Amino acid sequence: MKTTLHYAIMGLPLLMVGDNLLTMAFSPQQRRVTNVMRTTHRIPGRLPLSEHHHDSSRLSMSSDEESPPSSANTELEGRLERTDLKGATRMLKEGNWDLTRETYRKIFYAVEERTRQENIDASQVNMRALEQEQLQRLMEYPLESPARMEMTDLYQTLQTKNELQVFGACGNSPIGPNKHLPAEGSKIVTPNLLETITGLSMVALTPQPTNSLLLAGVGLALLEGLTSVVTGIDINVLIIATLLFALLDQVLVSGAVFETAIKIVQPNVNQKILRHEAGHFLCAYLLGCPVEGCVLSSWVALKDSRFGGRQNAVSAGTSFFDPELSAQVNGKQPLSRSSIDRYSIIVMGGIAAEASYFGRADGGAGDEMALVQFLSNINPRGGGALTWTPESIKNQARWGALQAVLLLRQYQPSYDALVDALERGGELGDCIYAIE
């Protein structure tokens, strides 16, 4: 299974987890909360785990508030249909709205459409599709994306209006007290400490190479041999035809046919991809990074330029935007340690989710590479941008995995609801409604 981080070069931290992507540095391998689980582990060093207090009050406005007139609702719907995020956000700021599930769907469908329509090539880079030359230009501070800034304002407005209570629950928030990660204190995380706190070994959290390609090759060779014997067709002709078909599959549909065949032979691959992407999605959401979309197959990605389109479609991906990291990478602010930490947790979120549910992670080698490339390319210029050695990079990966595992456990009801929504083919609005 492949997973990728999709950064929009325009805003760099438009992170994405999918297939053939690599914008800031990577290439892949692949309700509402009414009861929140809490962990009480302590990382030796300074501070204990902080308790996160979640307000489970209703998301819609209370009965004593005055709802906007029907004409205002009609105007809001019109703006959303036109993907006028700026106008819709302004209306949401000015009134008290009773947002229904259908309204959530319309709001976040507009988010998907607005970001999808943005015709700036740099904002449509898929982390797995980046060439080495592009990777080397990783830290050149590309321009920010207007659509993603509008999306961020919309998310934060809904958060301020108390419509998104889980969004940013463990990260940056424009309102309320400072939020904390589940494990505060020293950032030194040894393999033994990681296993003690999470119950997961380093082996479980290290993506394992799969033998899917080997098995597929052996099976195909046997099929070609049998076909040659039965039909009398020269086996060399069959081999050439197979290679040609594979080439066309890769060129025309980015390997979607081969991916489908693998999923038929190995049905559990679908569940692994789904839970992996849900891990990235929820970690980004909890840390206050607006999510703009998620795809679980190449066939869907082929129709969406944000995930590579017809040229470089990913096999699976989650696209989200970190406005602070974007500003810092664009040179507007020094690169902070908090931004690096956020990125690390989100990157490791897929591996953490997969290992937690299946006992080990098969996908995520590209995520690890993404983190290594990102940290290795940081130029120390102040703030939290220190020189990263191989050992400190490994420690940061362990720290990110630890936080991701604990976050997913702490918000297990939201994670399960998100998985269910994705499994049913839900759109972005369905997923966010399920989380909340």
UniProtKB/TrEMBL annotation:
The processes (GO biological process) annotated in the record are: proteolysis
Output the Gene Ontology terms for molecular function: ATP binding; ATP-dependent peptidase activity; metalloendopeptidase activity
Gene3D superfamilies attached to this UniProt entry? Peptidase M41
Classification via InterPro entries: Peptidase_M41-like
Segments of this protein annotated with the region Disordered: 40-78
Q: Determine the domain of life of the protein's source.
A: Eukaryota
Q: What name goes with this protein?
A: Peptidase M41 domain-containing protein
Q: What is the lineage of its organism?
A: Eukaryota, Sar, Stramenopiles, Ochrophyta, Bacillariophyta
